[in-house]
Design goal:
Elements: H1 3-18, H2 27-46, H3 56-78, H4 82-105, H5 109-113, H6 117-129, H7 139-163, H8 168-176, H9 185-191, H10 193-217, H11 238-246, H12 254-274, H13 282-304, H14 312-337, H15 340-343, H16 346-385
Helix pairs in contact: 1-2, 2-3, 3-4, 3-12, 3-16, 4-6, 4-7, 4-12, 6-7, 11-16, 12-13, 12-16, 13-16, 14-16
């Protein structure tokens, strides 16, 4: 690839890595932006024939799991409906296990069996939260909405993509606009502009129907509409957050186990894509497993021993410095012993450190909020009982 192609790849992949950081604070707009970028990146790459797309499926699934992980972690911070959270927890890990199974076996039918219901369920719940109180999201709202999304939206979509092996973008270009899949969108639209007009009209009608349902049929909003995440209570901010949660947390607890499983499965998915057969040795996979576990224990210990970060950004910056410092020492040691070529690409390991740091820091921060909310809820219940 030339400089132009590398610039495109860096910008697109960089956007897919950075954009999800907005999800915990602007949930629905940021998630929709991630979804749109996910849908558009292949078309962007196809405009540059020198960019190889042989491994696009694994690349796409890996980055999907990355931003879905941040969506899940955002539920720890923002969601106060127990049933909505439990349903999202199941749907996310169900999909995660399915993607791991697919990466290890390359059986595309597994992605149909383990559909990505989590993403659309998450979008639905966040759409409800824009104007309605969390108390409206009870047991049956969560279960029925998840079932309907699973059966009527995700199963047909996963069949289309993974069983029929059809691409929606190619279908739109070739079948609706009568153009080639590799044509630019300007050429595609110019081929049949009336189709674009029909699509715009259809979207406007859909928006009108949704507006009519929300304003005429649905219950009145419980509050002023907002696309921002709900503010955290004072007890879940700053130093008070750790004082509130500390009594209910331990170093070796269920949260630590979940963090190891979460980070381990995500790293395994990326390892299948990033590591070639030549370097996919027991040592490299062992490095991934050991680093995940050690980093999870270290970050868990810091999280449970009162370190009080002023913000997530500061925490990320500090942990990036710590983790990259550790890897730098290891690389120096390996260079002295002349073992780097045997240990796999340096850039790949540096990316894994980025991945581990993001997941563990966000998990530590937002699971602490989740725990603090549980402590406050128990205190409230005890007060009402008294």
């Amino acid at each position: 690839m030339g400089a132009e192609e590398w610039t495109v790849v860096v910008l697109v992949v960089g956007a897919r890595l950075v954009l999800p950081f907005a999800i915990p604070y602007w949930p629905l707009p940021a998630a929709v932006a991630c979804m749109l970028l996910d849908s558009a990146d292949q078309s962007i790459f196809q405009q540059f024939p020198a960019i190889p797309l042989e491994g696009y499926q694994s690349y796409d699934k890996s980055l999907d799991i990355y931003y879905l992980a941040i969506m899940y972690l955002a539920t720890l911070r923002n969601w106060t409906s127990p049933w909505a959270f439990r349903t999202s927890f199941f749907l996310y890990y169900y999909r995660l296990v399915g993607v791991v199974a697919f990466e290890l076996s390359q059986v595309r039918a597994l992605l149909f069996i383990f559909p990505n219901t989590f993403e659309y369920f998450w979008d639905f719940i966040e759409a409800v939260r824009i104007g309605w109180d969390w108390k409206r999201v009870g047991k049956w709202t969560a279960i029925v909405s998840a079932a309907l999304i699973w059966i009527f939206i995700k199963l047909p979509q996963e069949w289309w993509i993974h069983i029929a092996k059809l691409d929606m973008t190619d279908f739109i270009k070739e079948s609706l606009f009568g153009a080639e899949a590799t044509d630019s969108w300007g050429t595609v639209v110019g081929n049949r502009p009336v189709v674009l007009a029909a699509i715009v009209v259809a979207l406007l009608v859909l928006v009108g129907v949704i507006y009519w349902i929300v304003t005429r049929k649905a219950p009145a909003f419980d509050r002023r509409a907002s696309f921002r995440a709900d503010p955290l209570p004072p007890e879940c901010q700053g130093a008070a957050l750790y004082r509130t949660a500390r009594a209910a947390e331990g170093v070796f607890d269920r949260a630590l186990l979940e963090k190891i499983v979460l980070t381990g499965l995500i790293s395994l998915i990326f390892a299948q894509y990033l590591l070639s057969d030549e370097v996919k040795s027991a040592w490299v996979l062992g490095f991934v497993a050991v680093f995940v576990t050690v980093n999870a224990f270290a970050s868990q210990w810091l999280a449970r021993r009162g370190r009080q970060w002023t913000s997530v950004a500061v925490e990320l910056a500090v942990m990036f410095a710590v983790n990259y410092g550790i890897v730098g020492v290891l690389l120096l040691f390996e260079r002295v012993l002349g073992m780097i070529e045997q240990r796999g690409p340096v850039g790949t390991r540096l990316f894994f450190v980025f991945l581990f740091t993001v997941i563990t820091v966000l998990f530590d921060r937002y699971h602490t909020v989740f725990t603090a909310r549980g402590v406050l809820a128990k205190k409230s219940e005890a007060g009402e009982a008294a």
